[in-house]
Backbone:
């Protein structure tokens, strides 16, 4: 069963080709990592998959359904969720409210005008479960503004999980986190189980090799390699594009 | 906040007191006091209540959803004019028919204007709402046969409840009638803003993009917020028409819109009490200025605008909420 | 035919006044992102100051124009330094603040100059009319207004395109942080531009008094017209303000002749159409956020 299939995706901005003939597929339950130097077009690709950008050409199929022209919120209802590289939370609202908004987003109750939001016990219970998962239940009434950066990154992911996703697009989940925190994220991703497919964009090679079953390498908007982690590690083309840009990544590839 | 999540019994009682005391104080001021006031002060109280409702309706759009609109008085005016025209031109007198009809007309106008205005956002939304209200004001000025032009529609009677055999209107009676409608509307607004829908509006205000990613059709929410806010403004307009006896193009205009804006900002955007407090303050300042410095009321109002913009952060209601939180939790949480 | 030319010239001269007022608004809107709704009230105050100089005291007309502009510029300075620089990007605070300023300025002018409207006045050298075609004549002053409008347009264009200050303004419109980062004293330039915009508004208040006279309601009316002009023509663009001014001037002039009840209506429709179709205006250089 294919969770996602991308056919010949193009995206042009004026003269710049941010995405050039991108084609790949992801099996249900698979863990795919997308890597590439800065400016390779990773976030643009996510924006195309997620619906924030519409492609200049090409097709996106989600569990067999053509979602190329569906809006962002329609895709969420089909089971596509996304976390962001730069924290994209409701900073002035409480942690609990953030989670409740995410939970209601995929329920009919989101149009309810008369019952108070605290009426929905089952959602409050689910919120407790989600927040317990990331150890933030005791801070549920704190404004997101005031919790630590690492906790905010974890909340980012929790919001994704709240949308009952079949596929999560994770954009640099460990961005700015310590090694310990990154390892935690890796654990969480593993714990998600096979009902959830994960596509991960990351610079953190430790995380990538921990989690990924397959890797896609992007450069200048094109896929230049895809395969199992060991294949990518020894691929000369991959070394070439990273050479001189980030020695640490080159080291990791060794 | 519900009590099931960790608060102890001691806090529960404190919480209860801190809720009951301000509510009772307000209840006394609104319910009991007016019966003992002279009639001109009762009229002032009526005006406070009507504008409190108008400001609350703007708060739904501006405070909760974050849509800054310069044209909200358009709905206030449409409601008032609809009621006036139904009474004076169509000869319908029963309040029970006029009220729902006028609300429907206002909601329809919000539905039309909303589709136009929501094509843009930010400062352009502000300008489009301004242009639309100017357009409506212009129509009200020129369409003499319907609206009697710049003179406005005069001689609007008190509401006909079909009970004229039982009693006739006094300013006390009118005040309590308006208060009843206000309480009903406030209750509805309170439920709406605390519902999942209302919380979604706040989410859109805070981070519209993320709300979309979470599955919300944000355009639809903004549109519904405009219609709901517009409809409540229409109710205020209907009450105003009966209270004031006159409805004029001025009531559709930017001056009336900014008055409501000011009430919200002084009282506190995004709260239920804020606009009520704001209305209280502004109408009282207007009243006292008209007595003390009759020619200089606009100067005083202008000064209030300037001072409140430069000094108040989040409005008075926000400061009071912070105070209450401090007493609740011993520190400000959020 | 004569009627057509009459309306045409009326529309253009009217449009030039609108351009004068609108250019100031457009500059501040485009440069600082500040919507100064009090612009109309400043126009009126400038006009009244000019009236005091030229009519009440009987002094030189051009001195009156300059004094009107000067006082207006001073008010602008107070507004910018005292209030606007703290309200960068906070739209509803800007709206409320400037609305409050409108109330204050309008009431002050009512207090100082009284409620009776002041009739139109002009420099003696420009009064009267001259022969155009056949036995048909047109007022000299209106033609002078057209020339003043064009002169100002050229002057502002030269300032914006050919001087260092202009370059700073244009850079700041595109990317404010970068401009400041380059070590340019952008704040000083921005304040200067704002005061210039207010000066022009005040001066046009005196000149425009020939067409409209002076009343206290004029402030809001002029503001709304200036807004329409700036939106239609395009924010931050001098050519846009001129085009917008002339366009609106013509719409209203011909509108008054052909459909007297609809002239303002048509200009608001024009504003709406532009806002919905091309928000940056016909010749606009910057879309605000």
Residues:
């Amino acid at each position: 069963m294919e969770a996602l299939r991308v056919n010949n995706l193009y995206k042009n901005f004026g003269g710049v080709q941010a995405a050039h003939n991108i084609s790949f597929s992801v099996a249900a339950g698979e863990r795919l990592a997308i890597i590439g130097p800065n400016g390779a077009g990773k976030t643009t690709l996510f924006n195309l998959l997620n619906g924030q950008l519409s492609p200049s050409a090409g097709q996106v199929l989600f569990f067999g359904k053509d979602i190329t022209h569906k809006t962002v919120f329609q895709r969420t209802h089909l089971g596509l969720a996304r976390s962001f590289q730069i924290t994209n939370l409701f900073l002035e609202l409480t942690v609990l409210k953030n989670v409740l908004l995410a939970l209601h987003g995929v329920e009919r109750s989101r149009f309810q005008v008369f019952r108070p939001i605290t009426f929905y016990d089952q959602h409050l219970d689910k919120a407790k479960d989600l927040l317990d998962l990331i150890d933030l239940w005791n801070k549920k009434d704190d404004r997101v503004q005031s919790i630590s950066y690492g906790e905010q990154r974890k909340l980012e992911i929790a919001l994704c999980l709240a949308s009952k996703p079949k596929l999560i697009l994770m954009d640099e989940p460990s961005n700015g986190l310590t090694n310990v925190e990154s390892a935690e994220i890796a654990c969480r991703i593993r714990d998600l189980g096979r009902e959830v497919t994960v596509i991960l964009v990351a610079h953190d090679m430790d995380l990538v090799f921990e989690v990924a079953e397959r890797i896609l390498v992007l450069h200048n908007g094109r896929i230049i390699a895809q395969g199992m982690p060991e294949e990518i590690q020894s691929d000369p083309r991959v070394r070439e594009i990273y050479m001189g840009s980030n020695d640490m990544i080159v080291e990791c590839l060794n | 906040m519900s009590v099931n999540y960790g608060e102890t019994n001691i806090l529960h009682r404190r919480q209860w007191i801190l809720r009951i005391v301000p509510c009772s104080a307000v209840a006394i001021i609104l319910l009991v006091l007016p019966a003992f006031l002279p009639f001109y002060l009762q009229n002032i109280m009526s005006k406070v209540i009507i504008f409190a409702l108008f400001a609350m309706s703007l708060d739904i759009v501006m405070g909760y959803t974050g849509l800054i609109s310069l044209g909200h008085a358009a709905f206030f005016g449409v409601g008032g004019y609809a009621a006036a025209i139904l009474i004076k031109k169509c000869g319908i007198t029963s309040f029970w028919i006029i009220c729902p009809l006028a609300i429907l007309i206002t909601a329809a106008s919000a539905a039309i204007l909303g589709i136009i205005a929501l094509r843009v956002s930010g400062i352009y939304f502000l300008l489009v709402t301004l242009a639309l209200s100017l357009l409506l004001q212009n129509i009200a000025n020129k369409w003499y046969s319907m609206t009697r032009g710049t003179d406005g529609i005069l001689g609007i009677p008190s509401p006909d409840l079909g009970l004229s055999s039982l009693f006739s209107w006094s300013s006390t009676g009118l005040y309590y009638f308006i208060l009843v409608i206000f309480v009903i509307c406030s209750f509805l607004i309170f439920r709406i803003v605390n519902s999942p829908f209302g919380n979604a509006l706040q989410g859109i205000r805070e981070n519209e993009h993320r709300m979309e990613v979470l599955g919300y059709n944000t355009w639809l929410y903004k549109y519904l917020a405009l219609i709901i806010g517009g409809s409540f403004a229409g109710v205020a307009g209907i009450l105003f028409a009966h209270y004031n006896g006159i409805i004029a193009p001025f009531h559709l205009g930017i001056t009336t819109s900014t008055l409501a804006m000011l009430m919200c900002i002084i009282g506190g955007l995004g709260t239920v009490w804020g606009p009520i407090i704001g209305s209280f303050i502004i109408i009282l300042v207007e009243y006292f200025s008209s007595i003390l410095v009759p020619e200089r009321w606009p100067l005083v109002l202008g000064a209030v605008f300037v001072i409140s913009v430069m000094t108040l952060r989040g409005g008075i209601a926000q400061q009071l909420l912070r105070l209450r939180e401090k007493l609740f939790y011993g520190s400000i949480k959020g | 035919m004569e009627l057509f030319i009459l309306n045409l010239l009326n529309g253009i001269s009217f449009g030039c006044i609108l351009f004068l007022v609108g250019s100031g608004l457009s500059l501040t809107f485009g440069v600082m992102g500040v919507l100064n709704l009090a612009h109309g009230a400043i126009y009126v105050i400038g006009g009244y100051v000019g009236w005091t100089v030229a009519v009440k005291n009987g002094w030189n007309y051009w001195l009156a124009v300059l004094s009107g502009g000067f006082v207006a510029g001073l008010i602008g300075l107070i507004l910018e330094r005292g209030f606007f620089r703290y309200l960068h990007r906070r739209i509803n605070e800007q709206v409320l603040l400037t609305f409050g300023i409108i109330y204050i300025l309008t009431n002050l002018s009512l207090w100082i100059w009284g409620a009776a409207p002041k009739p139109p006045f002009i420099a003696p050298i420009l009064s009267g009319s001259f022969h155009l075609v056949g036995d048909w004549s047109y007022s000299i002053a209106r033609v002078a207004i057209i020339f003043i409008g064009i002169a100002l347009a050229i002057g502002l264009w030269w300032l914006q395109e050919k001087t260092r200050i202009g370059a700073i303004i244009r850079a700041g419109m595109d990317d404010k942080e970068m401009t400041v980062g380059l070590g340019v004293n952008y704040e000083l330039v921005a304040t200067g531009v704002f005061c210039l915009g207010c000066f022009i508004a005040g001066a046009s208040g005196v000149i425009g008094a020939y067409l409209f006279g002076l009343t206290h309601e004029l402030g809001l009316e002029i503001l709304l017209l200036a807004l329409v002009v700036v939106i239609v023509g395009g924010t931050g663009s001098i050519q846009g303000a001129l085009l917008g001014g002339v366009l609106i001037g013509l719409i209203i002039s011909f509108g008054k002749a052909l459909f007297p009840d609809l002239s303002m209506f048509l200009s608001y429709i024009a504003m709406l159409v532009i806002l919905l179709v091309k928000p940056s205006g016909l010749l606009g250089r910057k879309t605000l956020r």
